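The data are quoted verbatim for completeness:
=====
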Amino acid sequence: MSLKSLLEKNSLIYEDSFYKDIETFVQLLKKWGRVHNLSGNLDDQTIYENILDSLYPLSFIEDFKSFADIGTGAGYPGLIIAIAKKDKEAYLIEPRAKRVAFLNIIKATLGLKNLTILQKRVEELEDLKVDLITSRAVTNTNLLLNLTQNIKKESSSYLFYKGSMLENELKEAKIKNYKVVCKDDRNYLYIKE
C-alpha cells in the first residue's frame, strides 16, 4: 500500500509537497540507515507504518504552536511531525551525534526553517519552553515527566507513544488529566496540563 493510501485511510490528508519531502526522507533514511544503523527495518512498508505512527495522534490532539521531541533518533515522531506541520516550531532533542548528523542532513535537504536540532539530553536544556512535548520509546512516563520539567510551560501538553507497559506506568506516574488512544499495538498517551 502506498503511503498516501495508508495515511488517507486513517483520515490524514496532506498536500503533494508533503509526500515529496517524505520521499526524500525515506531515500536518505535508507541510505544512512544501513551505514549508521539508525533504524530497525528499512523496507518501505515498515517506514510507512512508522510515519503513520508518528502522525496519527495529530488527528486527535489539540492544536499547538511549538513542540519538542525527546530522543528523536531517526526522526520518529518529531521529524515527521515537523515535515507535516511546517507552521509549528519544532525542536528535536537527540544526544547521539550520528543521529543528529542525519537529522541535520534532512533539515538542510528539505530546507526546514521551522526545525531546530539540539544535540543534548533534555535535562540539560535551558531557555526552551514548548506547548507540546513528544516522545516515542524513550523511557517510562514518570521519568519523562520529571526529565522534561525544564522545557514545559504551565499549559504544556504531553504526547507519549507507548507500548504494553502503559497501564503500570500510569499508576506509577499518578497523572490525572489524560487520555489514551489505542491503535494496533500502540498506546498514545495524551496528557493535558
Observations:
- The longest strand covers residues 152-162.
